[in-house]
Automatic annotation (TrEMBL):
Keywords: Membrane, Transmembrane, Transmembrane helix. The keyword Transmembrane applies. Pfam families: DUF389. The chain crosses the membrane at residues 114-135, 141-162, 174-200, 220-237, 244-265, 277-297. The keyword Isomerase does not apply. It comes from Streptomyces aureoversilis. This is DUF389 domain-containing protein. NCBIfam families: uncharacterized hydrophobic domain.
Amino acid sequence: MLHLRMICPPARTDDVVALVEKTVGATHLAVVPGAGRDPHGDIVLCDVAREAADELLDALRASGLPEVGAVSVEEIDLSLSRRAQRAELAAPGSGADAIVWESLVEETHEESTLTVTFLAFLTVATMLAACGVIMDSAILIVGAMAVGPEFGPLAGLCTAIVRRAPRLAWRSVGALLVGFPVAMALTGGFSLLMDALGLFHEAKFLAPRPQTSFIWQPDAFSFVVAFLAGIAGILSLTSAKSGALIGVAISVTTVPAAANAAVALSYGDWAETRGSAVQLALNLAGIVVAGTLTLLAQKWFWGRQRARSAVAASGPKG
């Protein structure tokens, strides 16, 4: 379940309480009059089943409460309450499958922001992949995939398309368009430095690399694997039982492709540079397409669940 803490002007408290009371899946309602100091107002507390939270948050936003007060949402790890159990049973669908759109937008907004930390992670991942390319090491390639933070902006772009949020879309696209060129340029310099130190060798790069040659040889499977990874990534992001976001796109080769392109460019190998660039584009496109379709499917599914719940609630009683 989720815990909501609201600060609202006293004149709106009754309206907010009414919204909570009519939400199927909400419980543990409490009002603390005059407890709010900044902003001034009443504190309204409640718990709500995850599968019912999106409807309540939409209603609170439509009421204008975020503009004159505040709404905070927290995950509840443990709730020992029969009322909470009944609320979860009454709410439509399963909490593990539910999407809390406000939370998703906020999370992807943070993950898709172009920051020094994002650039550092992407650059380190690309350099790590460059070492894997030269050594023909699948282990290093997998490690680079896990370190790479690029799924954040990709998920942000998918969310922006579905939610029609242009600012989030531009933020996500900007992180990708700036992040990858910067990481590739720095990795190219890193490759030249390692070559000057005698740690990278052009002969190794040009030699057969059976473990990593797939990086610069895109085919139909490149898009298929990226598509499946995009579905897994979005499900991991939206599910209440998901693991950490890092590494959800472990099966795709965005970072390794960027690294291979940078190393190939530093050695003047235009064929591998082109192949790696195509691989990178296919993977980015596959993740965005799959992620967007997955979110649209989830939006449609929960729209039907909410419609069924509304029909059941308005049906004859007794």
